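Hello Y.,

Per our agreement to keep a running log of every chain we model this quarter, I'm adding this entry. I've kept the format consistent with earlier entries: sequence first, then predicted structure.
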Amino acid sequence: MGCEILRGIQGVCGYDASGVEKLWIGNRSSITGLTQYNACGEVTGITWSGGTIELFEIEAALDSITYTDDLQVNGPRRNILQTINFSVTNMDCDIIDTLETIGLSNMFAICKLADGSYKLFGDRGTGLRATVVSEASGTASANDGAVTVTISGISLAKARIIDPTYAASIGLT
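Predicted structure for the entry above:
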């Protein structure tokens, strides 16, 4: 049983990890359908264009991956703004080419959270597009340069949870 932190509000009594551990992105056009769900509404199957799964793992700087999945209200309209941020510090010509391509792509993303669950972003609505690809460095010798990337898009619903068994079946670990 959790500890009571405020009258009637249960909290966690112990250490716990939060955050995003891993990030994969793919071309939005490669998802042609999500028709399989379990009793909890978790994704248990994705139909891929040409039957081929095409995901690209982003090797982000330590603890730099974050996401938001926020309700946006504009008069009678409601939608969800999904945003994923990450930083990359290891630079070579392949990574620079990939970052430039991200700047032009319409994507979806899968995040593996520290609790072992997986979330799918950008599958409903407009997909995710780069809004920031920025490189910066400090002035001290220990300040490595990093590229910060923000991808975001409007969704018609909150990010879906992917069943962990299905995630493992498509190679996500």
